Q: What sequence folds into this?
């Protein structure tokens, strides 16, 4: 029922956000932000701490309701499931995998819940994406922070979303890990859209277009 | 969803043991306090369900509180649609409660010398109770997960919602403890529990997305 | 509007004391009936209003509706509390005990509990939007629970109610309700409802202002 982006190469895909604004109670984070991205774009969101990068990503992922504005994802696949949730995935430092489950179980759960198939080899393949095949059957709670970050990336990428959102992807990662991030971003750019939020100079180079949150401070 | 929670739980058995300890402690307290006094079947029924209620109030919020605390909430929200989350948590809570009841009821009747004249009937009512209590309060768990002083707010909000169900459950299980009178009264009460739970579950299902999403 | 309400209420109070004949079997103290019943009525209606406002909030996401819901609850709580107390006073006068576990008394106590839980819930959540969603959801669920209890409890076997039944005592049971009593009661109901609406409006305005001040800080 569900399609990965891969089946639809060449079809149109557009992420559109209009006049987004977010306010938490009395504190306004940003306002008047609009953006557009099409298949193949890698968008980099920059901004000082607290400027709302993570908030923006959550809104784009459909996990947070904006105070103003709308987000729309257009594809011309006729049977596309409604709602952003199935077509978008977010990996952020504040989003943790289940510590008491093994890596394999986390992967299986995530994929199955989203409706993707879960053949036995799938979990291994996904773990392989981030170099954690040999840790497949260990509880994620025992992983180091760098490994946990790899798990986050693996889960988000495994879902094969049309739009992949990465909040500080190289957080806690070593050189090897950074290379993985680059690979993931490049792979995503072929199949869909990728949005990166970061303050890291090297990470920022991964994308051609830049948005600065400071421009939209209220 | 249910499987995931179940697996995580079996690994540590934290929730089950804490609720169970609490419930058993309550039963022990009751039996000490009423040392061997003879109680009517209705009183037995009432006490048992009071213990179950408090056990539920202590333990059922965990399903959601845990997600919030561990930071896995957003992962879950990305993974599954709200209805699936609700149903899964509900199933987990019901199973948890049923497991607790399976221990509490026998222990209670043993310690309190409460003759159980119709064990199968009691078991059926207990199962119904587990589903009913979870059905009505799972959404409350989601509501308090991100609030302050969660445990007490959960118990406080759960009480009024559960009161009709609990009263009816006592009514329904009294015959099994040997209350005289037609078995029909118990059955009527059980039907009422079913309809009450049904209504509240439909409402919970409709309202859950509003509570779960931001 | 306020003038009309004031005069109306004064008339009702006067009628309750002087114009209506004493309720059979309860004597002069029975006049509290004109106070107690409308309070209970308003207390329950208020919660319905709060739930309604909650539904409107969920539809429109406009925090104004949430203020309205909270306001209705606050006013409703006051009336319910008064109803419970006046009921207890009446019980004491009529039957010699404050509390009787009569289904209706228990029901109103449960409504009071619901209000309490509602306020506890509200005060435990900091984010205004979340607080609004959750309060709305709770008010709807609690309303269903309350309706169920109020209508089902009296039917539980083995529970008789001390509340006079038929609830409206007349001086002559065969002829039905004494018309004067009925008139005063209806007038009291109308008056109290008016009072409620007036207080609700004011409280909503207060809540909205507080909300705006909090947001503009």
A:
């Amino acid at each position: 029922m569900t399609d990965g982006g891969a089946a639809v190469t060449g079809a149109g895909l557009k992420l559109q956000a209009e006049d987004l604004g977010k306010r938490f109670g009395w504190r306004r984070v940003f306002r008047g932000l609009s953006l557009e991205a099409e298949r193949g774009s890698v968008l980099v969101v920059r901004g000082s701490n607290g400027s709302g990068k993570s908030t923006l990503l959550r809104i784009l992922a459909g996990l947070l309701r904006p105070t103003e504005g709308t987000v729309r994802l257009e594809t011309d696949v006729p049977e596309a499931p409604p709602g952003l949730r199935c077509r978008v995935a977010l990996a952020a430092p504040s989003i943790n995998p289940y510590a008491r489950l093994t890596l394999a179980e986390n992967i299986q759960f995530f994929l199955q819940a989203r409706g993707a198939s879960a053949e036995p080899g799938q979990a291994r393949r996904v773990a392989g994406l981030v170099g954690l095949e040999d840790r497949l059957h260990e509880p994620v709670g025992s992983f180091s922070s760098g490994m946990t970050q790899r798990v986050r990336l693996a889960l988000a990428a495994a879902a094969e979303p049309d739009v992949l959102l990465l909040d500080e992807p190289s957080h806690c990662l070593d050189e090897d890990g950074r290379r993985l991030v680059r690979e993931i971003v490049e792979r995503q750019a072929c199949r869909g859209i990728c949005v990166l939020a970061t303050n890291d100079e090297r990470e920022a180079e991964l994308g051609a277009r830049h948005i600065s949150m400071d421009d939209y401070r209220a | 969803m249910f499987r995931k929670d179940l697996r995580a739980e079996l690994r540590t058995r934290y929730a089950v043991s804490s609720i169970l300890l609490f419930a058993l402690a309550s039963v022990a307290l009751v039996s000490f306090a009423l040392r061997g006094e003879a109680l009517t079947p209705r009183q037995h029924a009432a006490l048992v369900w009071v213990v179950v209620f408090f056990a539920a109030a202590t333990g059922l919020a965990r399903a959601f509180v845990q997600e919030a605390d561990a930071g896995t909430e957003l992962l879950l929200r990305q993974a599954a649609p709200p209805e699936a989350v609700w149903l899964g948590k509900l199933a987990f809570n019901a199973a948890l409660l049923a497991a607790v009841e399976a221990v509490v009821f026998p222990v209670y009747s043993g310690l309190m010398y409460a003759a159980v004249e119709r064990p199968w009937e009691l078991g059926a009512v207990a199962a119904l109770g587990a589903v009913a209590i979870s059905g009505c309060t799972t959404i409350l768990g989601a509501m308090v997960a991100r609030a302050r002083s969660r445990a007490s707010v959960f118990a406080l909000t759960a009480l009024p919602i559960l009161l009709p169900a609990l009263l009816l459950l006592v009514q329904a299980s009294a015959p099994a403890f040997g209350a005289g009178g037609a078995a029909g009264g118990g059955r009527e009460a059980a039907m009422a529990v079913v309809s009450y739970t049904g209504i509240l579950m439909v409402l919970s299902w409709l309202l859950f997305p509003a509570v779960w999403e931001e | 509007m306020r003038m009309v309400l004031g005069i109306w209420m004064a008339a009702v109070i006067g009628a309750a004391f002087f114009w209506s004949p004493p309720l059979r079997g309860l004597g002069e103290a029975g006049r509290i009936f004109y106070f107690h019943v409308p309070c209970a009525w308003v207390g329950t209606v208020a919660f319905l209003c709060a739930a309604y406002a909650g539904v409107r909030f969920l539809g429109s996401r406009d925090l104004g509706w949430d203020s309205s819901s909270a306001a209705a609850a606050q006013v409703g709580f006051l009336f319910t509390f008064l109803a419970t107390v006046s009921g207890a006073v009446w019980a004491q006068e009529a039957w010699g005990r404050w509390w009787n576990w009569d289904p209706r008394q228990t029901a109103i106590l449960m409504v009071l509990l619901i209000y309490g839980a509602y306020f506890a819930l509200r005060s435990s959540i900091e984010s205004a939007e979340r607080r609004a969603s959750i309060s709305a959801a709770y008010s709807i669920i609690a309303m269903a629970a309350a309706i169920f209890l109020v209508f089902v409890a009296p039917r539980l076997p083995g529970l008789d109610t001390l509340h006079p039944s038929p609830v409206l005592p007349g001086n002559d049971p065969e002829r039905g309700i004494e018309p004067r009593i009925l008139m005063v009661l209806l007038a009291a109901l109308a008056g109290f409802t008016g009072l409620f609406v007036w207080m609700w409006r004011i409280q909503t305005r207060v809540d909205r202002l507080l909300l705006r001040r909090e947001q503009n800080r």
Summary: The two ends of chain B are 21 Å apart (CA to CA). Chain B touches chain C through 34 residues (CB under 8 Å). The CA atoms of residues 136 and 161 of chain B lie 7 Å apart. The mean pLDDT of chain B is 80.
